[in-house]
Amino acid sequence: MKIKSAEFVMSNSNVTKAPKDRIPEYAFIGRSNVGKSSLINMLMGRKDLAKTSGKPGKTQLINHFKINDNWFLVDLPGYGYAKISKKKRTIFQYFIENYFKERQQLVCTFVLIDSRHDPQKIDLEFMQFLGENQIPFCIVFTKADKLGSSKLNKQIISYKKKLLTSWETLPTSFITSSSTGLGKDEFLEFIATVNDDVADNFN
Ligand code: GTP
Ligand code: MG
């Protein structure tokens, strides 16, 4: 898929105020600093469309971007950032959970996992939450450039093995690097295919 346009639409903390357009939507979620905003920029071929930072906790709201005038991409705040206050964390959790439960246009969620890390409870629990709410998701391994290829393969195989202890089938997964562009074409082709598949539901 060719990206002809990518525009920021709005930021908000309340899913009821999100854009009303009936077009397919894809959300990016994962731990703080895993590379959600960077991946969005890489996919869109834009440096600063989504705001990124070396410090965790950069994205704090639900951010809608409209792509090619016919689908949305959503950058979400990360979970699992230890330094935010408990009160703020509860508010975060509440609006993120609400987003996932209420957003009818959402057709697929990308759960980002840092390729270097072994499976973490918070990510596995989040996938469980998506499963319980019948929200389709894919796994996206990020920062692949930070590992050599044999270590990378090993990490991914062991991650999948862990998933198979609680899931019957594995979700679609992607291996990406926002630094090198690894995974870009495959990722965009996947979205194009889903857009075609769901087109009838959006007429
Ligand atoms: P929050 O908004 O805080 O939840 O973080 P985020 O998940 O949006 O992460 P962000 O895209 O802001 O990236 C965090 C840091 O990781 C930044 O310093 C990025 O430059 C770096 N980073 C992201 N993706 C990659 C990657 O693929 N390779 C490398 N080497 N660094 C990356
Ligand atoms: Mg971010």
What does this structure look like?
The protein has a single domain (6-202), classed as Rossmann fold, CATH 3.40.50. A seven-stranded mixed beta sheet has the order 1-3-4-2-5-6-7, with helices on both faces. The longest helix is centred in the middle third of the chain and has 17 residues, at 86-102. The chain contains five helices and seven strands; from the N terminus they run ββαββαβαβαβα. With 203 residues, the protein is an alpha/beta fold. Helices cover 33% and strands 21% of the residues. The site of guanosine-5'-triphosphate (GTP) has 23 residues, from helix 1.
Strand content: 15-25%
Task: List the helices and strands in order.
Answer: EEHEEHEHEHEH
CA-based gyration radius: 16 Å
Number of helices: 5
**Backbone structural class:** alpha/beta
Low-confidence stretches: none
In which order are the strands of the major sheet placed? 1-3-4-2-5-6-7
- Amino-to-carboxy terminus distance: 21 Å
Using the 3D structure, state the CATH architecture: 3-Layer(aba) Sandwich
Bound ligands: guanosine-5'-triphosphate, magnesium ion
Instruction: Indicate the CATH topology.
Output: Rossmann fold
Could you tell me the number of beta strands?
A: 7
Q: What would CATH call the class?
A: Alpha Beta
Q: What is the overall shape?
A: globular
Q: So, the CATH homologous superfamily?
A: P-loop containing nucleotide triphosphate hydrolases
Question: Could you give a short account of the major beta sheet?
Answer: 7 strands, mixed
